[in-house]
Write a structure and sequence with these properties.
two-stranded antiparallel sheet, elongated
């Protein structure tokens, strides 16, 4: 007689693979659980990636979800994390096709998912810099919102996402090329912002823990560019702490 552990393992394998041997009888009963498991998995994936689902259509999304589940079955009791490997799966599955841009769209939507379960900490204003002397400013380290996600794509995925917030969304011209932007939890939900390359590089450097002087150098900002970056950072409520390391 099979042990309980062996029975559970064979049952879990059979839910994903109809050809897998399973001690559960009658075998036809597995179809009920198998169909429910696949439907539930696809439903959660659709909640996390609504724009991607809309752009590829229901039938193709069903196929993608099926193959993704075979490659990355859920290994957590929390269904929130089902989609965490979806972008990487799409990059491998579609990387050499005309649909390679869907991987970056999935990355953007996953940043939205992460931001939706994160917190929005009380932001600082630019007045917080007044506590420091002029010769200390370049050594300041900015702590950014924990929900902040950054994405640079060779494709106009921010435009695709924004265009698909309403019904009857038209296709976005892929020749528009590279876009970069931010995703974060805001006062009224998740916020998306497209930004200029220099601003994106500056915020990315701060997010990596570089101090203000290092971030300015990494982004290649001049004095006017720094002022613009600071205005943007505080206006967008990105900064929730400023410190001067010893």
């Amino acid at each position: 007689m099979a042990s309980l552990r062996d029975l559970q393992c064979s049952f879990a394998a059979a839910l994903r693979d109809p050809g897998a041997a399973c001690a559960v009888t009658p075998a036809a009963n597995l179809d009920v659980y198998r169909n429910h498991g696949e439907t539930q998995f696809r439903g959660v994936l659709a909640i996390s990636f609504p724009v991607l689902r809309r752009r590829v259509g229901e039938d193709y999304f069903r196929q993608l979800a099926h193959h993704y589940r075979r490659a990355h079955p859920s290994r957590s009791g929390d269904l929130q994390w089902i989609g965490q490997h979806f972008a990487g799966f799409l990059a491998l599955h579609l990387g050499c096709t005309g649909y390679a841009w869907l991987a970056d769209l999935a990355r953007l939507e996953w940043l939205r998912e992460l931001a939706s379960i994160s917190v929005h900490r009380p932001p600082l204003t630019a007045d917080s810099l007044g506590r420091y002397a002029a010769d200390q400013l370049e050594r300041l380290v900015f702590t950014l919102q924990p929900s902040l996600g950054l994405l640079r794509s060779d494709f106009p995925v921010f435009s695709v996402w924004m265009a698909n917030q309403g019904a009857e969304a038209p296709p976005v011209d892929q020749s528009r090329g590279q876009e970069q932007g931010l995703v974060q939890a805001g006062r009224n939900g998740v916020e998306f912002r497209m930004v200029e390359p220099a601003i994106f590089s500056w915020v990315s450097a701060l997010a990596q823990g570089l101090n203000l002087g290092e971030a300015v150098a990494a982004a290649g900002l001049d004095e006017q560019g720094l002022l613009s970056a600071l205005r943007f950072g505080f206006a967008a409520e990105l900064v929730c702490d400023v410190s001067l390391p010893r």
